[in-house]
Amino acid sequence: MNLTQTEFGQKIGLAPNTIANYEIGRRAVSEQTIKSICREFNVSYVWLVEGIEPMFSETDNTTMLIDRILAGENETAKSVFKAFARLSESEWKIVERIIDNINEQKNKASE
After folding, report:
1. Alpha-carbon distance values, 107 to 22, 93, 103, 104, 111 (Å)
2. How many distinct helices (H) and strands (E) make up the chain?
3. Please, are residues 63 and 56 in contact by the beta-carbon 8 Å criterion?
4. Which are the contacts of 45, defined by CB distance < 8 A and separation ≥ 6?
5. pTM of the model as a whole
């Protein structure tokens, strides 16, 4: 991706010397760092860990977007995602009905 160690490290929150230590094998890459690399660069976890193609994840980027929101400073957005993460199956059914009602109202308004 033509990044320097500094640029690469900045994207995943690590110092250039940490990246250098990874490259020369002086330090093992943590699971958290692997996940950060996958998230930031849309790299497949299996490719990064095991070398199995494809290199890049074929996703709709939803997970990356959620990760960025959770890492950001918008406390309202973080609270919403955290609340959703704690919902039970019955509570998800309620959310589903609310969304269906909203969509019905939008469809009626556009007719």
Report:
1. 54, 21, 6, 5, 6
2. 7, 0
3. no
4. 34, 35, 38, 57
5. 0.52
C-alpha span between 84 and 93 (Å, rounded): 12
In tens, the pLDDT along 24-45 reads 999 999 999 999 998 888 888 8
N- to C-terminal Cα distance for the chain? 48
Phi-psi region of 54 (alpha: psi -120 to 50; beta: other; left: phi over 0): beta
Q: What is the DSSP letter of 111?
A: -
> Roughly what angle, to the nearest 10 degrees, separates helices 5-12 and 31-41?
100
Report the run of H or E that residue 62 belongs to, with start and end. Answer: helix 62-71
